UniProtKB/TrEMBL annotation:
<protein>
    <submittedName>
        <fullName>Magnesium-protoporphyrin IX methyltransferase</fullName>
    </submittedName>
</protein>
<dbReference type="InterPro" id="IPR010940">
    <property type="entry name" value="Mg_prot_MeTrfase_C"/>
</dbReference>
<dbReference type="GO" id="GO:0015995">
    <property type="term" value="P:chlorophyll biosynthetic process"/>
</dbReference>
<keyword id="KW-0808">Transferase</keyword>
<feature type="domain" description="Magnesium-protoporphyrin IX methyltransferase C-terminal">
    <location>
        <begin position="223"/>
        <end position="318"/>
    </location>
</feature>
<dbReference type="InterPro" id="IPR029063">
    <property type="entry name" value="SAM-dependent_MTases_sf"/>
</dbReference>
<dbReference type="InterPro" id="IPR010251">
    <property type="entry name" value="Mg_prot_MeTrfase"/>
</dbReference>
<dbReference type="GO" id="GO:0046406">
    <property type="term" value="F:magnesium protoporphyrin IX methyltransferase activity"/>
</dbReference>
<dbReference type="GO" id="GO:0032259">
    <property type="term" value="P:methylation"/>
</dbReference>
<dbReference type="Pfam" id="PF07109">
    <property type="entry name" value="Mg-por_mtran_C"/>
</dbReference>
<keyword id="KW-0489">Methyltransferase</keyword>
<keyword id="KW-0949">S-adenosyl-L-methionine</keyword>
Amino acid sequence: MACSSPLFSALCFHTNVSPKLYPKLNHTYRKKPIAPAIPPLSAAADVAVDGTTIAVIGGGSVAALAAVLSLSDPEKRRQAQAEEVGGGDKEVVREYFNNNGFERWKKIYGETDDVNRVQLDIRIGHSKTVENVIKMLTDEGPLNGVTVCDAGCGTGCLAIPLAKEGAIVTATDISAAMVAEAEKQAREELLTGKDELSPAPVMPKFEVKDLESLEGKYDTVVCLDVLIHYPQSKADGMIAHLASLADKRLLLSFAPKTLYYDLLKRVGELFPGPSKATRAYLHAEADVERALRKVGWRIRKRGLITTQFYFSRLIEAVPA
């Protein structure tokens, strides 16, 4: 079980995926057990990954990896991507998640067995994050009537469970393909089986928007695994903007920047896989906390979710 830092409120995170929320995933998880820790750098993986999935592939000693990294230039690959779509990081992200990235992450976030062991592990890690967000939000009472903005909703992995809990959800994503898939899944789960849910859940409002375009006021704003697409210079502004939309709580998850995780990310960038991916940015927890303090917010709870190939820092911030 992964637990939070003892600073502020202690928060112990679930490590088993709830069969209630993810029955098929829990079955797959039992069928294909995966070690709970990141393997040694000398261990070779038999799959190709990219900078977004931040997985470890092959390698030898840390010194050997450092030598290889010094000879590589993943930045040139990223610049070429930006030139192809005629813009910067945002345009690359939009293009990726409307095309190859959509197909890849739809499988990862879904329930198909057609995934490799890295993708399955990432699915489990992301599902743990979603389940811990639901627990964090419901610890203080029911969500009936609570307004929630799910910023970067993907295929609806969080928006749909929130609606089942009674929340009034606005779910947005930069990718039109992701939003269409999320709405499709929401209709299948919330409207088809509405007689089984009492009271009947309110269908989330799905919109195609980037983070900068979000507006309105919500009791809670949640942004999971999206800051990985923003360098810290832009992440500060995004954190401030998201906080301005929230009245009571802001939940963020991000890939933590440590020496070890940074090395793993750079190794992943050496092996971009068969399809192009987006640039991946890690963030130091101290930098995120500083950005929150600048706009009058403080971290109340924090925790770390890790699997073999997935690691994410989850924080809950409230007005100071």
